[in-house]
Every structure is written in structure tokens, then in C-alpha cells.
Amino acid sequence: MEIFLAVVSILLIISVFLSLIKVDFWIYKILEYPRLQKLALIIIVTGCWFFFWPMQKLSYQIILGGLFLSIIYLVYKIWPYTILSKKEMRRVKSTEPENELKIFSANVFQDNQEYSTMLQQIKESDPDLIFLLETNASWANAVKELEKDYPYTLLAPFENT
Predict the structure, then answer these.
(1) pLDDT at residue 54 in the model
(2) Do the beta carbons of residue 16 and residue 70 sit within 8 Å?
(3) CA 20 to 30 Å from 47, out of 30, 38, 109, 122?
(4) DSSP secondary structure, the chain, as one string
(5) Terminal CA-to-CA distance of the chain, rounded, Å?
(6) Cα(45)–Cα(47) distance, rounded to whole angstroms?
(7) What residues pair up with 105 in beta bridges, in sequence order?
(8) Which residue has the higher pLDDT, 7 or 93?
(9) Is the pLDDT higher at 147 or at 98?
(10) Which residue would you say has higher pLDDT here, 58 or 43?
């Protein structure tokens, strides 16, 4: 069981620090995003080390050090996205609605055929700009009625989702 825990620990440490390599290849990028999940796993694995085995071997001490460094790094990367960190932008209550810019953005996924639902949502929110993503020719035709209220359009429908 010690060997299994050591292997899992080493793999977790590698998954944390491999994302520091600045290469756009997918294997490096995919490891960068599940930070919270990795943090939870590393905390559990670290707890297992303390609960089950004493730290008498140097190799286990090195692994535990790597786990602690991983925890510190992950907390550093996650911290700005928590409610505990300082807010970068304050909410502003508008005093001049005519100076507001409302943007409606939706990833419609072209296989979705709920055209009327989307048009209703757009009408209810009354945006200044509309961005519909993953549209195809069917979507372009279905939302053509928007052109009377939004005369400036840029259409780029593709049939490749």
C-alpha cells in the first residue's frame, strides 16, 4: 500500500508541475485546469501519509515535501477565484441606463433547434449586441427577423459545430 500511495503522490506532483511548462501541446494544457480537484486529491493523499505511515524514509519525506509544494502552488493559483480574495471590479449601479451597453451571448449549439426560445430570450433582454455561437445556416435563417431591429450584422455560419 505504501508503494501505491508513493506512486499516486508522484503522479499528482507531476500533474501539478508539468503544467508549468509553457508549451501549447494539449497534454500540458489539460493538466492546468482541474486545480481544485487536484488540490482535494493531494490533501487526501497527504492526510493518508500522516495517518498510515511515519515519515522515517528520506524518499517519503521528499514525496511529502513535493505534496506540500503542490498544495502551496495550487492554493496560490486558486486563491484569486475565491470569495476571500480582493475583488478586481466593483459592481456599479447604473444611474444612466441610456449609457449602458447590454451584450447577449449564447452558445446555441447548431444541433439545437429551439429557435423561438432563443428569439424570445433575446427580445426579453433587449440587448445592444448579440453574439450567437456555433450557428449554421438553419440558425442564420431562423434569426433573420432580428435584422429589422439589428440592421448591422455579421454572419459566419458553419456546418461543423
Answers:
(1) 67
(2) yes
(3) 30
(4) -HHHHHHHHHHHHHHHHGGGS---SHHHHHTTS-HHHHHHHHHHHHHHHHHH--S-SHHHHHHHHHHHHHHHHHHHHHGGGSTTSPPSS-----S-GGG---EEEEE--TT---HHHHHHHHHHH--SEEEEES--HHHHHHTGGGGGT---------S--
(5) 46
(6) 5
(7) 131
(8) 7
(9) 147
(10) 43
